[in-house]
Design a protein that fits this description.
Elements lengths: L8 E7 L3 E7 L6 E8 L6 H12 L4 E8 L7 E3 L6 E3 H8 L3 E5 H8 L9 E3 L11 E6 L3 E6 L5 E4 L11 H14 L10 H14 L13 H9 L3 H25 L5 E3 L2 H6 L5 H9 L5 H5 L3 E4 L4 H15 L10
Parallel strand pairs: 1-4, 4-7, 9-12, 12-13
Antiparallel strand pairs: 1-2, 2-3, 5-6, 8-13, 9-10, 10-11
Amino acid sequence: MSERRPPGAVLIADIGGTNARFALVGDTPRDLRGIEVLACADFEGIEDGIARYLERQGVDRIVEACLAVAGPVHEDQVDLPNSHWDFTRSGLRAHLDAPLTILNDFTAQALAIDVLDPDDEIEWIGEPRPREGGVRTVIGPGTGLGVAIQTPRGEVVPSEGGHIHFAPTDSHEIELLRLLIPRYRRVSVERLVSRPGLETLFWANLHLDPGPGDMPGPNRSAKEVVNLAHGGNPTALQAIEDFFDVLAAFCGDMALTSWATGGIYLSGGMMHRLRPFLDPERFRARFEDKGRFTRFCETVAVGWIKVDHPGLLGCAAAALRHLQVPSFTPELAP
C-alpha cells in the first residue's frame, strides 16, 4: 500500500553542466507540471536556482525532492564536474526542509525507460529488439558523456564510463588522436562525444584537412557546427560523422562491458540536435565491429530515446517509488 503524501509539492530536477530542468510531480511519473529549463550560469548555486523556480511556480512548501545531477553522488559532498554548482546532500536537505533524494543524472535516465512507450518514444536503430530481463545501458552525450547500467532486478549502477580512454579504430581516428594528445594529454571518449567534443572534432578536422573556404581560427560552438553541417560544410559534416563513429564504437564496448542484452539506449540533448545526420547502417556497422564478439553485438538492440525530458521522468518515477518503497535501491535512500 502506498504511503499517503502530505499536502505540498514534490519537486524534481535534472541538473546538467549547462542547464537545470525543473518540474513538479503529480500522481504518476508522466504527470509533470511546470517544466522549466534554467541556465546554471545564471545562478550562483543550486539553492538559488531552486528558489527561483519555486517562486515562479508559486510554491511555498515542498514535501519531497528528487534531484538528478551530472556527477558522482555517493558522498555527502556533491560536485558537478562540468558546472560551478556544488553542494552537500545534508546541507541542501536542511535548506529545503524536506526529504531529499540525489541521483546521478543517468540513473534517472535509466529509470525513465520503464515509463516510456517503446513503440512511440524510442526509435530503434537496426532490427534487434531488447531481450526481456536483460541488462540495459543508457548512454548520453550532452555537456559530458553519461553512462548508467540497469540490472534485470531494476537496480541502477551509476558510472563515469564516458571518461575511459578513446581508442581509435581507423587511420583517420589515429590522426585525430595524434593531434589531440598535445592538447589534452589524456583523451577520453567524452573529449569527443559531447557538446564540447563536437567542437573539438570540428577544430581537429579543420587542422587535418580544411575544406574549401575553411581556415583554422577561433573554436566554433557546437550550434555553429550543426548549422554549418546543415549548409553542407564538409568539415562540419566530417566532425559529425566522427562523433557518431566514436559514439557507435563506444556503445559497442559498453554493450560488451555490461552484456547489455536488454539494449543500449541513447539519450541527451546532442542526440536531438544531431539525429538528422545519423546514418543507421553505418552506426550499426561500427557498433557491431567487435571481432570475436561481433555476433553478440549483432543481437543487441540500440534505441534512441525521443522524449524531451527523460531525466525528469526518471526522477518522477524515483520520487514516487521512494514514497512507497524507501529501499527501492541503495542510491535512492535519502
